Amino acid sequence: MSTKGKQNRERIVEAADNLFYHKGFNQTSFSEVADASGIPKGNFYYYFKSKDELLNAVIDSRIELFRNLLSECEANYQQPLERLYRVADILVNEADNVLHHGCPMGTLNAELGKTQEELKAHATQMFDLLVDWCEQQFMALGKGEESRFLAMHQLAMLQGAAMLSHVYNDRTFLEKEVQTVKSWLDSLLQ
Amino acid sequence: MSTKGKQNRERIVEAADNLFYHKGFNQTSFSEVADASGIPKGNFYYYFKSKDELLNAVIDSRIELFRNLLSECEANYQQPLERLYRVADILVNEADNVLHHGCPMGTLNAELGKTQEELKAHATQMFDLLVDWCEQQFMALGKGEESRFLAMHQLAMLQGAAMLSHVYNDRTFLEKEVQTVKSWLDSLLQ
DNA sequence: GTCTATAATTCGATAGAC
DNA sequence: GTCTATCGAATTATAGAC
């Protein structure tokens, strides 16, 4: 694939990423992605042979983005507790988006979980990445076999915070819940 | 409306309720509801003049169901703490459904929150009912102004538990999280 | 009240010229 | 590689006979 082709492909993925997040996967049409990316509709099938394949590319892109985010976090923060704080802070940093559209990981999984099991399995890899990474931090804190559950529990609390604050468009609640998660992390070390 | 007409209307709502939960609102077509309810497709518009109106009827039906559930709970349990336990237990009682399709309140709000604000506002009334009721129980426990936040916090934890256990189809995690919520309720009274 | 037939639109996907 | 034109299927919704 040429440089131009790669640029076009990335532009499509970027436009689709935003639309799938804001409108949902099934409610986003190829025409809308075409308009948003500036690529004629008929030309899509040169880059992606189906809508499902486009979603898979979007998911891969989100996973790659998260991988870089976590690597950066590892470089900037040495303490496992600090690193777990940063995961909770993601919700506050992305508060505007979370309040309006919910968590991009959670809402996508919820949508695909209804009728598109295969696509959901891929979307779940976004959770895997985060759960595995948090589990490692809890392991480093000496939590042993309990680490997996603690990692899932932390993400569950954040998902619940994202859901309720999205339902009520309540920024204050989101911030209080994130603080609650941090207090819970503190309590684990005592 | 005749008795027959009312029966037909209820059959449509019941079929739509299940399909909207299992497949999502936007991914469910009138044809599917027609097949499931045994009512010919063209006859739908005698009972509901649009798909949105059908969803509103489904939401009203769910709210009514929840109202009865909470009334029954009030009759059977006098202690506010016991009553709050029962709200958490809903997830365990409905574990099969939650694992396969997520929380019917949460997933519907997440879907409608993307592009159908008006419908979402109605769906949010399901949360209102539950939050208000839990708030009353916390008030009865003497939690005062904090009660509203505690009610939202409890529901956020349950939503997170539903989301993660749905993502991973993990019944054990769901049960552990519900137990965690109950332990949190206990800790509030000490 | 009930049902058939179909309108009007939009969707994902394809064919084929350049 | 790029783009236009369009297909076939599915969708919500309507018209009108009975």
Summarize the structure.
The structure is a homodimer of 190-residue chains. The first copy, chain A, is mainly α and 190 residues long.
Question: What report would you give on this structure?
Answer:
The structure is a homodimer of 190-residue chains. Chain A is an all-alpha fold. Chain A folds into two domains: 1-49, Orthogonal Bundle (Arc Repressor Mutant, subunit A); 59-188, Tetracycline Repressor, domain 2, CATH 1.10.357.10. Helices cover 82% and strands 0% of the residues of chain A. Chain A is built from ten helices and no strands. In chain A, α1 packs across α2. At the A-B interface, α7, α9 and α10 of A face α7, α9 and α10 of B. Chain A binds a DNA duplex (18 and 18 nucleotides) through α1 and α3.
Shape of chain A: elongated
Low-confidence spans of chain A: none
Number of helices in the DSSP assignment of chain A: 10
Question: CATH class of the largest domain in chain A, anyone?
Answer: Mainly Alpha
The most extensive interface between chains reads: A-B, 37 and 37 residues
Q: How is the quaternary structure best described?
A: homodimer
Number of strands of chain A: 0
Number of domain units of chain A: 2
Strand content of chain A: under 5%
Describe the main β-sheet of chain A briefly: none
Q: How do the SSEs of chain A run, as a string of H and E? A: HHHHHHHHHH
pLDDT averaged over residues of chain A: 96
CATH superfamily of the largest domain in chain A: Tetracycline Repressor, domain 2
CATH topology of the largest domain in chain A: Tetracycline Repressor, domain 2
Q: How many angstroms does the end-to-end distance of chain A come to? A: 55 Å
Structural class of chain A: mainly alpha
Gyration radius of chain A, rounded: 18 Å
